[in-house]
Specification:
Layout: H1 3-22, E1 27-36, E2 39-48, E3 51-56, E4 59-63, H2 68-76, E5 81-88, E6 91-97, E7 102-108, H3 110-114, H4 116-121, H5 137-142, H6 157-180, E8 183-189, H7 195-207, E9 211-218, H8 221-234, E10 239-243, E11 257-261, H9 267-277, E12 282-286, H10 303-306, H11 309-330, E13 333-339, E14 350-356, H12 362-375, H13 380-385
Helix pairs in contact: 1-2, 6-7, 11-12
The structure holds S-adenosylmethionine.
Length: about 375
């Protein structure tokens, strides 16, 4: 392949390196097929512990994730074309490269789609939706859930299920807060395109017939601009969207509820800390990827099983959220940890609900301290709340 194509391929592969690091618990493998004339040469990259294993031409090579791009690009120089298929749970990414072009396509993993259980959940279910098609059409169309034909778009069914479940799980909290405050002020941390803000606003205003004000925070100017545009199109004036790191935001009004859906890694901690530091009484948080503790924790007795990367990663998820919940209890919150949505919809399916009930809980604080010492970890949340 020519230099230009190999260079472009290298860039896409660097993106995959990052993706492997970010989604280590979902990574499956990368199939690589090089072609020269009519002959095909295939290889595969798998993960063992924290190292990649590249099997090609009968040779197995162990390497750091950060070497993937350089190594595969080097091989690509000797062939006419390459098809690289990256698979993780839920997603397949295909890179096709030849001398003319280098293209990348992302598709939902057909394997999961084909599974019966998955197809059962990734469709409009028979449950009674909180944000109903037929009633909230203007909103659902504007945020891209409904197509012009008035039907939920196929690729938005999951999102629709996710946000509607979120409304369902916090409806009691909203009803309770709405009886005590004239206007509910809600902070959406890592708001993205603000689906949550829009549907919760609809639910509070149109269904509960209460007043509310939303502040959406995201450090991506693109999604903030998109959210502002949607609010303008819908004529919603009771919301604002700010381009900011959650960490840097200072609330200038009393906030009653902090929400966060899939804010990445320690952005979840920033959202929780923002709530704690501003004495917000309610928080509903669905964490996303968990990287911080994965690289820190050690527990001698578990070593024989933690040598398997997937188990180490899953345990890190549990420890991260468990320590978050325990620290919040220590800080005087009543915490419930619930399954937010079927794991077949998304593996990031745990919801933390916290409600301030007392100044502090010293017994829980002690348990938290002992546990983190046992594991040798320094959770981000603690650094952010203990200022
Ligand atoms: C996976 S998206 C979720 C978006 C939205 N909550 C949803 O569920 O559709 C995570 C969002 O968090 C934002 N984000 C991540 N870390 C952040 C931080 N530290 N401060 C502000 N925004 C952050 C990203 O830009 C992205 O828009």
């Amino acid at each position: 392949m020519n230099k230009q194509s190999v260079g472009k391929l290298g860039l896409f592969l660097t993106g995959l390196e990052q993706r492997i690091n970010d989604n280590v618990q979902f990574f499956k493998k990368i199939n690589i097929a090089f072609k020269s004339g009519t002959k095909e040469f295939s290889g595969v990259v798998t993960l063992e512990g924290d190292k990649l294993i590249f099997s090609f031409n009968g040779i197995k090579e162990k390497m750091e994730t950060a070497w993937l791009s350089a190594r595969v690009s080097k091989y690509a120089e000797s062939y006419d074309s390459a098809v690289i298929t990256y698979e993780e749970r839920g997603i397949t990414i295909v890179i096709e490269a030849d001398n003319k072009n280098v293209r990348m396509k992302t598709k939902e993993a057909s394997e999961e789609k084909a599974s019966k259980a998955h197809s059962e959940t990734s469709q409009i279910s028979s449950r009674d939706y909180f944000i109903k098609v037929g009633q909230a059409d203007e909103l659902l169309k504007e945020i891209g859930i409904l197509g012009e034909n008035g039907k939920v778009k196929n690729d938005m069914i999951r999102k629709y299920n996710q946000i509607d479940h979120f409304v369902e799980l916090i409806s009691d909290t909203l009803k309770d807060l709405a009886t005590r405050y004239d206007t509910l002020n809600i902070l959406d941390c890592g708001c993205g395109k603000s689906y949550l803000t829009f549907v919760l606003n609809y639910y509070i205003k149109e269904v509960l017939k209460k007043s509310c004000y939303f502040i959406g925070l995201d450090y991506s100017g693109v999604v903030v601009e998109a959210s502002r545009k949607m609010a303008l199109n819908l004529g919603y004036r009771n919301m604002e969207f700010k381009v900011t790191d959650i960490r840097d935001y200072r609330a200038n009004k009393e906030i009653h509820l902090v929400i966060s859906l899939h804010a990445c890694d320690t952005a979840t901690d920033e959202a929780i800390a923002l709530g704690v530091n501003n004495e917000v009484e309610s928080m509903v948080i669905v964490p996303c990827c968990h990287r911080q503790i994965l690289n820190q924790y050690k527990f001698q007795a578990f070593e024989p099983i933690l040598k398997h990367g997937i188990l180490k990663a899953r345990m890190a998820d549990i420890l991260t959220d468990g320590l978050r919940a325990l620290l919040l209890e220590g800080l005087g919150y009543k915490v419930s940890v619930v399954e937010y949505i079927s794991p077949l919809e998304t593996p990031k399916n745990l919801m933390l609900r916290a409600e301030k009930i007392q100044e502090a809980n010293n017994a829980a604080l002690l348990q938290y301290k002992q546990l983190k010492e046992l594991l040798g970890v320094e959770p981000e949340l603690e650094k952010l709340v203990y200022k």
